[in-house]
Amino acid sequence: MRVPLDWLGEYVDLAPGVRGADVAAALVKVGLEEEGLHGGDLTGPLVVGKVLTQDPEPQKNGKVINWCTVDVGDANGTGEPQGIVCGAHNFGVGDFVVVVLPGAVLPGGFAIAARKTYGHVSAGMICAADELGLPDDGSGGIIQLAERLPGVDLTPGQDAIALLGLDRETVEINVTPDRGYCFSLRGVAREYSHATGAKFTDPVTALAQRAPAAGGAGFPVRLADDAPIRDRVGCSRYVARIVRGIDPSAPSPAWLATRLTEAGMRPISLPVDVTNYVMLALGQPLHAFDLATLNGGITVRRAAPGETLKTLDGVERKLFEEDLVIADDQRAIAIAGTMGGEATEVTDATTDILIEAARFDQTTVARSARRHKLPSEAAKRFERGVDPEIAAAAAQFAVELLVEDGGGRVDDGVTDVELPLPQVVIDFDPADAGRLVGVPYPATDVIDVLREIGCTVDGSGDTLHVTPPSWRPDLTTGPDLIEEVARIRGYEQIPSILPTPPGGRGLTHGQQVRRLVANVLAARGFDEVWSAPFVGDDVHEAFGWDPEQARARTVALVNPLSDEQPLFRISLLTTMVDVLRRNVSRGFSDVALFEIGLVAAIDGPLTQAPYSPVGVHPCDEALAAIRGSVPPQPRHLAFLLTGNRTPAGWTGAGRPADWTDTLETVQAIGEALAVPLTVTPEATAPFHPGRSGRVTAADGTFVGHVGELHPKTLQRLGLPPRVVGGQLLLDELIRLSEATPQATALSVMPMADSDVALLVDAAVPAAAVETALRKGAGELLESIELFDVYEGERIEAGKKSLAYRLVFRAPDRTLKTEEVNAFRDAAVARAADAVGAVQR
C-alpha cells in the first residue's frame, strides 16, 4: 500500500516538515512494516522545456537519434535554447517536455552533466517517467506534459519538480492479512494517530451526514443468495446511486490523477479514476456500470449451472455455482467483489452511470478470486474485510466527485438494501492483558486503548463487554484485544526475558540409538544422505517387485510434486538408488551411503479421518480414528556401497565392495547396540538370489535384508555392475536394544580351547551351525570362531567341512580337559540334531 503524505495529511495532522522516514517509523511502531520510500530524492534543476527543433540523425549502428534544441527559459542562466541528444521518438516540435539540466541528481544518485555523445555536446536530458521514479503514463517514452497535466499553464523554465509532485513523498507499507482496514488512507491515518497522538479526522463522518437516506425511486436491487457458504450470506448490503449526464470527454482533474499515480495506480478515465480514488481513500471498493447497458433491475445471486461471463479483461469465464454474481434480468454482469463484465463496462461514450457500493462476504470473494485467478484490488480488500458501515458514505463520495468533475447530476432515489449482521461482543477480563503479555497494564489503560481503537466498552471489574469497531473484523476474541493493547502501548515495553528451560532427561533411547548407528556407519566411511520419499511404479518394476502388489501397499499422494513420482516409498532403497546414481554420474566411483528415514506401507484397511474443528482438542475416539486413517510409518536404515571398499594405494590394488561387506556392516551395528544379529541366506528382490541374506536377532525377530543387488535391477536403474547394500528395521533394533546389557566381571582364570571340524551338507548355512554349537556348548562358552571352510576331493560330494575354534573359561577355576571335551561333545551333538552335522 502506497501512502502519499499530502493525501495522508488530509485525514490526520502531520507536523510541519515531517518526512516520509518519520511517518514510516511511526507506522512501524504500530505494526505496519515499511516497504520503501518514494519521491523527495531528486534535486534540480528539473524544468519545463518546449521543443524548438528536432533533427533525426541515423547512426552507423542503425540507431536514429534526435538532435534537439529546447527552450528552457532562464533556467540555464543564459536564456539560450539548450542542445540535447535524445533517443526517444514519441515527441515532436512544439511539445512541452521535462528537461533535467546539468547539476541535477536523479533518483538513484544519477548525476547529470554535459557530455559529448553522437558528435554533439548534450547539455542535459529530456526525461521519461521511469527516469524520474514516476509510474509510466502510458506513452512508454518521453513525458508529454500537456497530456499528463491537462488544463495546466506551462511555461519554459518552470520548475517541474513541484509541477509533477516530485517534491512530495510516498510511504510504501506492507499490510498483513488481519489489518485489511489499512488498505486505505483512512485506515493508515487512524494508525498514524495511534502511534503519534496526532488528531485524526474520519472522512466518513462528513460523507455519512451528506448521504441521503434510502428511499424514493431508487434503482431496483434484490439480494437472493439461495446457497450461502457455511451460513455466510454472500451479500449483506447493496447501495446503488445513479449519476446522469456525465461529460464523456471530461478528464480526471490533475490533483486526482496525481494522487492515483503516487498511490501506484494509472489514471484511466474519470469514472474509473473516481471509483479507484474512493477505494484508496476509504477502503470500500466500488464498481461503475453503464446504466444504458443494464436490462431491468439488479439481483445478487449465486451463478446458475453452466453460466458464463466475459469479464473486463476480455476472457470468457465459466462460472461456478459457488460464485456470487451481480446480474440484471437477463444475465450475469459481474463477479461480485472481483471483476465486472465487459457488456456493462463504462466506455468513452457512457453518460449515465450506476455506482455500486456493496458489502460482500470475505470467503465468497476470496474463493472466486482464486478460482478464476483474478487477484484484483477490490478482491484484495473484500477478502480481508471491508468496513460494513461505510457503503453509503463511499457511494456519496463517488457521486460528489462525478458531479463536480464530470458535470453530472445525481438522481434523488437512493437504493440501500441491507441484511443485518450479528454484532460481536467479547467478554473480556482486563487483567488478562498484563498476565499474558508480561507488562503490568492497569485496567484503566486497557480500557483507554480499547476505546482509542474504536471499541465500545461496557461493564466494570473483572468482566468487560467489548464491541469491536465495524472496521475491525479481525477482533473476535480476548487474545485479539490483548494484542491490540500491546501494540498500541508499544512492543518495546515488553521485556525480553529468556525463559529458564526445565531440567530435561537428555536424548530418548530411540534418539540415542539413531545417533549411535549413524556414528558407527560414519566411522566406517559411510556418508549420510537424505532422499525425497517419492517414487513411481517404474522403480518397483526395476526392483523386481510385482507392481500391483507394491501399489496395494503404497500410499498414493493426492497432490504429488511430480506426476512421475505419485507414491510414497515403501523402502528406503527405492529412493537411495537415485542418490547413488547421481553421485556416480558426477565421477565418484567409490561410494558408501546410508540413510535413516521413514517409509509408509499399508498393511491393512484404512479408514477416513474424521473432521475435527480447529481449536478443539479431539476426543479419544476421534484421535483413534485419525491414527487409524494413517498407515504405519516405521523408521528404517538403509545403506549402499559400490566401487572399491579398500582404495588402491601404495599397499596394492584396491578391494571391490562385495556382499561380505554388508555382513560386516550388520555385525558392527549389532555389536554397537549389544544386539547379536545373524545373517542367513534368503533370496528376496531386489537382491541377487545367491548373494543375499535375512537378518534376524537372537530371539528370531526379523530385522532386515542385506546382499548384492540383482544385475537386472542394476541394469534397469543405470547403476554400476556391482552394488551391495541392505535395509534394516531401525525401530526393531531400538526395541531390541532397550534391555540394558549385563556386564560380567573379567575372569582371571585361563581359557581352554578346543577345535572341531564338522561335515554338513553344502546348502547348510554356517550361521545355522554356529547357532547350534552355541546352544549346545553351555554357559562357559566364551567365544566361537569359524576358521576354515573346505570343499574338495577328500570329502564327499555335496558336503563341506566347517572348522570352529571353541573357547571356554570358568570364572572361578581352571577347567579340566575332561570338562572341555564334554562341553565340546555336547555342542557337536546339538549340531548333529539341528543340522545333521558329523564330526570329522
From TrEMBL:
Cited Pfam families? B3_4 (PF03483), B5 (PF03484), FDX-ACB (PF03147), tRNA_bind (PF01588), tRNA_synthFbeta (PF17759)
Query: What subcellular compartments does it reside in?
Result: Cytoplasm
EC number(s) on file: 6.1.1.20
What sequence ranges are listed for the domain B5? 421-496
- Coarse class of the primary localization is cytoplasm
Principal EC category: ligase
The residues listed in the UniProt record as binding Mg(2+), with positions renumbered to this chain, are 474, 480, 483-484
Q: Which domain of life is it from?
A: Bacteria
- Name the needed cofactors: Mg(2+)
Question: Calcium as a keyword?
Answer: no
TRNA-binding domain residues: 40-155
Q: Where is the FDX-ACB domain?
A: 747-840
Cofactor: binding comment? Binds 2 magnesium ions per tetramer.
Q: Where are the transmembrane segments?
A: none
Q: What biological-process terms (Gene Ontology) are attached?
A: phenylalanyl-tRNA aminoacylation
Report which reactions are catalysed by this protein: tRNA(Phe) + L-phenylalanine + ATP = L-phenylalanyl-tRNA(Phe) + AMP + diphosphate + H(+)
Q: What GO CC terms are in its UniProt record?
A: phenylalanine-tRNA ligase complex
Q: What molecular function does GO assign, one term?
A: phenylalanine-tRNA ligase activity
Ordered alphabetically, the record's keywords are: Aminoacyl-tRNA synthetase, ATP-binding, Cytoplasm, Ligase, Magnesium, Metal-binding, Nucleotide-binding, Protein biosynthesis, RNA-binding, tRNA-binding
What is the protein's quaternary organization?
A: Tetramer of two alpha and two beta subunits.
The UniProt family comment states:
Belongs to the phenylalanyl-tRNA synthetase beta subunit family. Type 1 subfamily.
Entries under HAMAP family matching the protein: Phe_tRNA_synth_beta1
Q: What is this protein called?
A: Phenylalanine--tRNA ligase beta subunit
Q: What gene does this protein come from?
A: pheT
